[in-house]
Amino acid sequence: MKVLRKIKKALPLLIFLSILWGILYFFIGNPIKYYTLKNEFRSYLEETYDQEFTVGRITFDMMHRSYHSSATDSEGVDFYVGQDNKTKQIEDAYEYELERLKNGER
Asked: Has UniProt tagged this entry with the keyword Transmembrane (predicted)?
């Protein structure tokens, strides 16, 4: 009987936490992955290009279940960084943006 009472008291809290987790998952995907990917994006860029980058706000693409962001290098070049929609591998458009700047397209 005492166990049943404890379960009845804890049930509203469990329901509330489940609803909160569902809302977070709907808007930002897995909340843990949301925060770890920002560091993964930064590490990927710093290892690939051997310089410091600032990663912007992460967005979650609910349709493709992938994460995307923008990043900026030390010279102020802003570019895309995110996950490929199919493979979920990290990709970026840094070289593309540098080429556009070099050709005067910006």
From this structure: yes
Q: How do residues 69-89 score in pLDDT, each as one tens digit?
A: 999 999 999 999 999 989 999
Distances 32 to 25, 85, 105 between C-alpha atoms, Å: 10, 19, 38
Contacts of residue 101, Cβ cutoff 8 Å, sequence gap at least 6: 77
Within 10 Å of residue 94's Cβ, how many Cβ atoms?
20
Alpha-carbon distance 32 to 36, whole Å? 6
Domains, the chain: 30-102 (3.10.450.570)
Angle (CA) 21 31 89, round 5°: 135
Can you tell me the distance from the alpha carbon of 85 to that of 64, in angstroms, rounded to the nearest whole number? 6
Backbone dihedral angles phi then psi of residue 89, each to the nearest 5 degrees: -75, 150
Residue 51 has pLDDT above 80, yes or no: yes
